[in-house]
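note to self: dont lose this again. the chain is below, predicted strucutre after it. 264 aa total, dont forget to put it in the shared folder this time
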Amino acid sequence: MSGSILLNLLALVSLLPAALLAFRPVAARDGVFWGAIIFAAAGSGAWAWLQLSQSWQTDLGVALWVSIATTLLLFAALAAFSRVGWRLAPLVMPYLLLLGLLASVISGHGQPMVASAPAVWLDLHILVSVLTYGLLTLAAMASLAVFLQERALKKKRPGPLTRMLPAVVEGESLSGCLLMAGQIILGLGIATGMATQYFETGSLLRLDHKALLSLVSFALIGALLLGHRVCGVRGRLAARVVLVAYLLVTLAYPGVKFVTQVLL
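---
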């Protein structure tokens, strides 16, 4: 037990440099930035992998660590291939650190996952779900950046944080691309979930909290993407819709685990 606590602590500490350096007023990505991101991804990824080395776990803490590691890898890719994606670091890294703290506090409430569906379907569904949550996390951070920038422009009082974040147009572009990718992967997640459900119960869909919230999120994101293309929906309204969709996905995935494992 003491060894697990130490490894958990090391994984948590690995997130700290990136969270602190995210507020460093730099003009471009540099070696320090990449070193902190790689250190955070390696620490959280190694801890998540170690916990899943035997089998998938139902533990919420494990699920959060997997989500943290996945989001870090996606953020690293975004920072590498996008001109301004790295500017989301002041929002992304402190948020992931908070998730790491939460994961550390509530871990130990789960058990190995047992399912009657073929292992390939279960593995595919879980991987797609984790990837979806990582993409939507980044989309939500980009939308939050847009919201903060527009509020600062409206008040004509830009602050130190908003000066670090992408401009409104850049944030909207990032959010749109991430949402499109997240919508596609979320659709795959719903499809693989239905396949897994069919193998286990013989029915394609069971309208429990997770399924219902996922379907509402899918419809909400789809409506936003359509509205953006047809009516030009953007700005703070679009940002609010994205944040609501992210809240629904959070309730559908880690939220259900939190209620069943921690509150009940």
